[in-house]
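Local shape tokens

___
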Amino acid sequence: MADTPQPPGERPDEVVVGDERFDAVDREPAITMAAERYVMTGSRAARLVLKEGDLFLYTNQAGHVTGAENSVLGLYFRDTRHLSRLELLLGGKEPVVLSSSAERGYSALIDATNVEFRGRDGRTVPQATVHVRRLRFLEDALHEVVRVRNYHDAPVDLALDLVFDADFADFFEVRGMRRRRRGRLLAPKAEAGVLTFAYLGLDETLRKTVVRFDPAPESIREGKARFRLRLDPGERALVRVSTAVVGPEAPVPQPGDETEKLGALRRDYEEWRAEATGIYTDNEQFDQVLQRAQHDLRMLTEETAAGRVPVAGLPWFAAPFGRDLCLVGLETLLFDLRLAGAAVHTLAALQGRTDSAFREEQPGKIMHELRRGELAALRAIPQTPYYGSVDATPLWLLLVCERTMWTGDLEAFEELGPAVDAALGWLAGDGDPDGDGFVEYLRRSRVGLVNQGWRDAAGAVVHADGTPAEGPIALAEVQGYVYYAKRRLAAIYGRLGDVERSERMASEARDLKRRFNERFWVEGAGFLAMALDGEKRPVATPCSTAGHCLWSRIVSDELVAPIVRRLMSAEFFSGWGVRTVGRHAKAYNPVSFYNGGVWPFDTAIAANALKKLGYVQESNRLAKGLFDAALGYDSDRLPELFCGFTRQSSARPVAFPMACSPFAASSGALLLVLQAMLGIYAQAEENIVYVHNPVLPSWLGDVTLSNLHIGHTTMHLRFRREGGRTTFSVRDKQGPGRIVIVE
């Protein structure tokens, strides 16, 4: 429950909130005012990213949050920035970073040394004679241990300053949203060695950042905590800092020292990983890339009533997104069915119930984005949740079906029956506003997205001449998702004995496929249209979502080969992945989110599609491109996207400055590609595991899967390449599952 402001205290410059008193000194917050996410202000320098639960910390490579304008850096909890400044000074000067790393995702280690400065005793301290090591991690709070050691041959007397500030900006403000009115930033309090920042929001909620020090600092003034350190040669000093956030549903710091809490975090990661499929190969670098992806998926998750679900990506999208939850669930079926299960139930709980133009909510529709900051509490933004995505609903239906096929849990499917029926009702009703049999979107909210597929920028759906397409817009890939979901539903209803619904789903899928190929194939271009516009004209700009259509199998057999040739040609394939738009298109720009950039999840879907259709070598070429791209990034981490420049022009992918990293759907990309290589598919309700034409590429000779769960069966499989042939063997199997080889 929010704290309600009380009448003023005894002094007129005092504010009382609950049982707390603050000086009523408003400070002008340092809030970013960049136009929007898509406007770049220069190349992005290296960042350190930490996340655990709903907390995430985003700093520069020195581990600092500088408080500069137009900066996204900070400590965040549920869309509120609780620290907008976090800096360390040694002798009044910023130290020189020697190394910094946030490999573990929940912790960072930063080593630094001093520049020359004059000590408090007046003596000069030469450069590189004082070493600073900072260990920080996120758990129930931001914990940091600062160790300062004197390597000089004489005593040093120095000031160590830790500088803090908190603007409590909502993340939409950080992204550039302007507000007519904000709540009140209250004057910081320093009492008994504890520094407290506070903000009373317009939602009548008091949010606080509480910084505790051990030992207590010599002084705290204007957010600067000063420690006086007198160190003999070789002597060291430790300063411990704990920064807790206080607000709605914020974590409460628990007793325990840093060693205990770090150990508990490490064990939690290990236990989570132990329940998933173990993947081991003979390619050490590929193992590193896969381990990074798996580690990032755990890092990005947050707890819900249904289990752990990942936020979309950091820093921009530290929130649940319907489309991304579905995509990650579909990518990780081979690795961890828990992600699919949590996504299915979380999204069902948030499924549209009423009609709201502002939030673009409609009964049966799956949500797009959920935010939980002050602006969301005030309903000043529609993301409470917002439902403006046309593809989340069919992707959710597909995920429900795929999870059922991998778990064999028909009872769970039947329990979801009302939600499935509501989603199908939306596809047939509000999802088809002009009644032409294709699922479409047309923006209803004045603050909503103009384009509502995964290519959701304003200029992402354009005709071949570069003019924007007008709605309602029927995206090609969305029709494929609907077709795929209905095919899967037909099979599941058949196994449940519901013949009427099974036949209806199969008939609707066949009819959709026929009409799709009649309307979306552009004969003169020899390629699929990106979409149909409001006048039912093909939007003929060639784009990568043709690969999604191949994945769903909605494309007629005779049209598959020309699409594959185009996707694998230099027009689309950069050598690292598939460009979102062909490079001969008028709209093409390699430094663009959706008109030329390369998205790993998009390429992974194409690779999976090509393997299913028998284009094995082409699929493995895409896999190699993504694998090599990952090796070109720090920590072997695939970002949200990278630029579409050809591989011949650069030894590594050209980074996209505003891309999220980590990004959940990119973390899942190579797991989906690996599933395609091995050809593993499930029909768990009949206790069957299919292995369809496994083909390992030349750079991968051995793959072992342990603890692979399919239905009530757990198995241990090994795949080996011997010359041009890939074989597999069953090392162990517990349960009733049968393995069926499909050539």
The CA atoms of residues 701 and 721 lie 5 Å apart. The chain has two domains: 21-266, 275-689.
